[in-house]
Structure formats: C-alpha cells, structure tokens
Design brief:
Layout (H helix, E strand, L loop, with lengths): L1 H22 L5 H30 L2 H6 L1 H24 L3 E3 L8 E3 L4 H11 L1
Antiparallel strand pairs: 1-2
Helix pairs in contact: 1-2, 2-4, 2-5, 4-5
C-alpha cells in the first residue's frame, strides 16, 4: 500500500512540473515535451502498479507463494507491455489544447490514445 502512496506523490510532483512547463511552453518547448512525456510514463507505470496491487490483494496468498515463476513472468510481461505502450505513445504527437478556458491548456492528442487503451484493458 505504501508504494501506491509514494507513486501517487511522485506523480503529483510530476504533474506540478507538467503544469509549470505548459504555462511556460513558449519559453521552454523542449522542456514541456520532456516533462509531459515523463508524466505519460508515470501514468502508465502507476496504472500497472494499481493492477498488480489489485491482483495481489484478490488472489489467495498461498497460490501466489506457490507460483514464484508465474509472478516473474507476469512482471516481465507487464514491463514489456508498459514499454510498448510508452514507445507507441512517444511515436505519436502530444497536443496541448484548452478544455474550457482558453487561458488553460491540458495534455491531449494521439499520444494519450495508447494510455487510454491500456487503462481500458487493465480495468477489464
């Protein structure tokens, strides 16, 4: 449970950095791109941590203890899956658009489509 809180705090700090970089997008466009990509990566990793946590809580501990090899395979598959989603996300464009107020910009665009698909898969 502590890893969820720590990872959420890290994502919060990355979110603050992302907001600051979007505010200064005209002065630091490369920094904005890097910080927003880091935010996308943090979201992908956090969704996977939540999935593993839910799996660990819902599965009987005797079954998990007996299948160390299965846990390793699951970990490797999740790392590969996260890497593929992030690589696909990096290949697509991040756009910044105003949601409601033209003075505020949010991250959006095709770069987030793989993240949305991953979250849908993890929820199902």
């Amino acid at each position: 449970m502590a890893i969820l809180v720590v990872s959420l705090a890290i994502i919060g700090f990355i979110e603050i950095g992302c907001i600051w970089s979007i505010v200064t997008i005209n002065q630091h466009p490369i920094l904005t791109e890097v910080v927003c990509r880091l935010h996308i990566l943090a979201d992908i990793v956090w969704m996977t941590i939540v999935l593993v946590y839910i799996y660990a809580v819902t599965v009987d501990s005797n079954i998990i203890g007996a299948y160390v090899k299965t846990r390793r395979i699951l970990g490797i598959v999740l790392i590969i899956f996260d890497s593929l989603v992030y690589i696909l996300s990096c290949a697509l464009n991040v756009t910044f658009h105003s949601a409601v107020n033209p003075n505020y910009l949010v991250i959006g665009g095709p770069a987030l489509y793989p993240v949305y698909a991953q979250s849908l898969v993890l929820i199902l």
